[in-house]
Each structure stands twice: as C-alpha cells, then as structure tokens.
Design a protein that fits this description.
About 30% of the residues lie in helices and about 30% in strands. It is α/β, with parallel strands linked by helices and about 140 residues long. The strands form 3 sheets. The chain has a 5-stranded mixed β-sheet. It has a two-stranded antiparallel ribbon with strand order 1-2. α3 links the parallel β4 and β5. The model has no long low-confidence stretch (mean pLDDT about 95).
C-alpha cells in the first residue's frame, strides 16, 4: 500500500517518505535499541549503504524505541550513517501502520513508492532485489 509519513530526524530535519519518490529506492529498517538481531544486522545494512547509497538507495532507520534517549544513544553508538526517525509521532506508530509483528523488519520501496518486499532479514535475495530496482 502506498503510504506517506513525515518524521523528525535526529538532527531535527523533516523526513518525508514521498520526497524520495521518483528519485530513490528506499529501505525502511524498523528496529529498536533493545533488539539484539536488529543491532547485529546493522553491519549488513552498512554494507548495503556503502555499496548502493551513491547508486540511489536510501536507508531510513525507524526506531521502535519508546524513549528518545535510548534511540539517540543506539544511533550514535552504532555510528549509523543513514537517517533515523522514531516510529511513534503524534499518536501514529509506523510499526502499526506497517503491521510489524516482529523486528527487525525491512521494507523495500521502489522508486514509484510501492512496497516490493517486507522481510525480517537482509540476505543475498534482498541485495539482488535492491540491485534490480536500482538498474
């Protein structure tokens, strides 16, 4: 389903999902500081970011943390090079919007804004799909 949201990034900028439409392939990473697999998978995401950021991949971290400080500390400690936002804002929770039953949840959105994949892992299959969408 085509969905748009606006959230504040850690540096106070408005991040609007639809602003990437027509320009970038977007990978939403729903994660939390207390989620061990989420933190472990940051290295795989950093590899994707290093390989594809300059080719048109935008990663947006969506933290499901309840406390701002937990989220901020995790982003800083993990040295995440992509933009991060909180899932919950103004009563709307993106983890509910995207029906996340478990995290990590990776949502791949093509350049037209359509969700093409929702998965709990980043593996070769997902990277191949990203490559294809960037062609």
């Amino acid at each position: 389903r085509d969905y748009d949201f606006i959230r504040k990034s850690l540096d106070g900028k408005d991040i609007k999902l639809s602003s990437y439409r027509g320009k970038k392939v977007v990978l939403l990473d729903l994660w939390a500081s207390w989620c061990v697999p989420c933190i472990k998978n940051f290295s795989a995401l950093k590899n994707l970011h290093a390989k594809y950021a300059d080719k048109g991949l935008e990663i947006i971290g969506v933290s499901c943390d309840r406390l701002y400080d937990d989220y901020k500390t995790a982003v800083e400690k993990s040295h995440l090079p992509w933009v991060n936002v909180l899932a919950k804002s103004d009563g709307e929770d993106l983890s509910e919007v995207y029906k996340a039953e478990a995290i990590p949840l990776y949502i791949l959105i093509d350049k037209t804004g359509i969700i093409v994949s929702m998965t709990n892992e980043i593996a070769e299959k997902e990277e191949a799909l990203i490559q294809k969408l960037l062609e």
